[in-house]
């Protein structure tokens, strides 16, 4: 049972998301400026309009009676159906807070830890092949070995559903991000699957009840899938598949992107092959590749080799090795700042050490001791 203050704050948080002209960015600006949603609605219009990015037109939206009517209706829905609300200034998934366009409020049903130590998004075509299905199922099965792991996808047909179903079968927490309100499940034949997921995982959306699964909602859904994950894996995708939108968004959030290669000429692998060709995704062929690239296992996090075991290091190599031995991971920019080496000399030194098997390149221009 919500306390009076919590009830009021939730009501005005809902109202904020329903105010005309107020989106993710302007909503966050307002919450940061006033501290909570209650103060936003109680502030005189002459003050509201002077907040950065608001102006007179948007400020007037806070006096629209329809806004409060919609908020009251949605509040009744979430309370009746035990829907959790995740507020950007309170209990939002932490990884999403780093995304400037993340929604200010999410609706959630489930018990999964949305801040799990390791979160993997698995996406792909709705018209998968047997090859794609096996890759997806093997990937999920391999992730079982990791502690505190969460799988995220979009509960769509094809690869998404395969990932969710495999997680359910293995008892792995998994979350489906919806492109509609909590009052329905789309596609309809995933109703039973969604109920199983809520028992050990959950479903998540930014859309209030009554929102239909309109086509324009799914790219918005994809940004949440990408933003709340450490790595997005594209299993199988055509050259224009929605999974590529998710991959692009993940890259824009500086998250890792990986893809399974497919046969040349296979239309349902064209998207994956192109991501790999453009270096927009790291190529993986099995779960162990992902675990190693993400540095998520003891094997992938080998102890640094003491430099006295090596002989004939050049002074430049000594600088690189010393920095790598002091940290688990080092970004290419850090070498430049800490070693003082020119870019061309640094690149040559890193390549030489990698060819000797002493260091390993990881996605995102990171390096570690091998």
User: In which range does the helix fraction lie?
Assistant: 40-55%
Structural class: alpha/beta
**How many domains is the backbone divided into?**
3
**Assembly type:** single chain
Q: Kindly, what is the distance between the CA atoms of the first and last residues, rounded to a whole number of angstroms? A: 53 Å
The CATH C-level class name of the largest domain = Alpha Beta
Put simply, the count of helices is 16
Uncertain residue segments: 299-311
Explain this structure.
The chain is an alpha/beta fold. The chain has three domains: 77 residues, 5' to 3' exonuclease, C-terminal subdomain (DNA polymerase, domain 1), CATH 1.10.150; 184 residues, Rossmann fold, CATH 3.40.50; 63 residues, Arc Repressor Mutant, subunit A (Orthogonal Bundle). It is 44% helix and 14% strand. It is built from 16 helices and twelve strands. The strands form two sheets. Strands 1-2-6-5-4-3-7-8-9 form a nine-stranded mixed β-sheet, sandwiched between helices. A three-stranded antiparallel β-sheet has the order 10-12-11. Helix 12 links the parallel strand 8 and strand 9. Helix 1 packs across helix 6, helix 7 packs parallel to helix 8 and helix 10 crosses helix 11. It is globular. About 4% of the residues have low confidence.
